[in-house]
Amino acid sequence: MTVPTPKLYIQDVTLRDGMHAMRHQYSLETVVAIARALDAAKMDAIEITHGDGVAGGSFNYGFGSHTDHAWIEAVSDVLTHAVTTVLLVPGIGTKHDLKDAYAAGARSVRVATHCTEADVSKQHIAFARELGMDTIGFLMMAHMIPPAALLEQAKLMESYGAQCVYVVDSSGALLPEQVAERVKLFRAELKPETQIGIHTHHNLTLGVANAVAGIQNGAVRVDASLAGMGAGAGNAPLEALIAVLDRMGFNHGCDLFQLMDAADDLVRPLQDRPVRVDRESLSLGYAGVYSSFLRHAERASQTYGIDTREILVELGRRKMVGGQEDMIVDVALDLVKAKAQGRAAE
């Protein structure tokens, strides 16, 4: 007799990480249609905000077509099964913004920090718990520090009240064994009641494999998006992940065919730039660069005549992290100057 596996918690990020692929220009009609489809397919949670989280709309990150409140409210109004979830990056979003998101219908929040900066999440995690929200710590760019150091950051988030802590491969740079090592360590060292989550990107074509590696080593929450819609080469494609989990016998509770239909009929037609592994997005994973830098780097490439790959590799060499989008132009200009000096020296 086969013993059923514990129910996984499937978190869709099409409407948040997918914002990066759309330059944060989803219409309300589009987010409602996608949310309805995901809800019908029995998604556990649906994340909806500007790609950089609540209050992310700015000159630095790009302005959204609507306010976060409007997006959150539109999605919340049509959900009957999934939990409306938001992302908040301390320093971008405030406690006031989180309270507004709650008023609009959000009942779960991922408080996201760079992998070495968990201490800035304390007040936001505590406030989310005061609101009664499902509260998650989200450690981005998890490839940049050793597993033991990442664990110490996870313990901080746990001590602040996070009910779940995520290993977040924002660059799609981790290999399956590296994901396994981090998640396994979290599971061994965090409290038994603290859940572990895994968020992957597909820049090295490992989005699904890394998600599975996380699940096999103790992650019970897993992120994915329809057609992989997300920054860089996108996230683990939700429909592909569910197909793999089906084949492996994991209990996920989602309707595979409905997710396939939503990916092909609703999401792929929206992509003005194909979300795929190509020479530019592959360079993100290769160089360990924040996935949402892609379209910013492509714009700088067009403006200054520098290969996008050169910009991305230099960003990786300089260890640039999320929030430093304004430095991409500076890097492009430095590369232009260096090329000009090289030609002059010849």
Protein architecture, described:
The chain has helices at residues 18-21, 28-40, 68-76, 95-104, 122-131, 147-160, 176-189, 207-216, 238-248, 256-267, 279-287, 293-304, 308-317, 327-345; strands spanning 9-12, 45-47, 83-88, 108-114, 134-140, 164-168, 195-199, 221-224. The chain is an alpha/beta fold and 346 residues long.
Features:
346 residues; alpha/beta; eight-stranded parallel beta barrel; 8 strands; 45% helix
Topology of this structure?
Layout: E1 9-12, H1 18-21, H2 28-40, E2 45-47, H3 68-76, E3 83-88, H4 95-104, E4 108-114, H5 122-131, E5 134-140, H6 147-160, E6 164-168, H7 176-189, E7 195-199, H8 207-216, E8 221-224, H9 238-248, H10 256-267, H11 279-287, H12 293-304, H13 308-317, H14 327-345
Parallel strand pairs: 1-2, 1-8, 2-3, 3-4, 4-5, 5-6, 6-7, 7-8
Helix pairs in contact: 2-3, 2-10, 3-4, 4-5, 6-7, 7-8, 9-10, 11-13, 12-14, 13-14
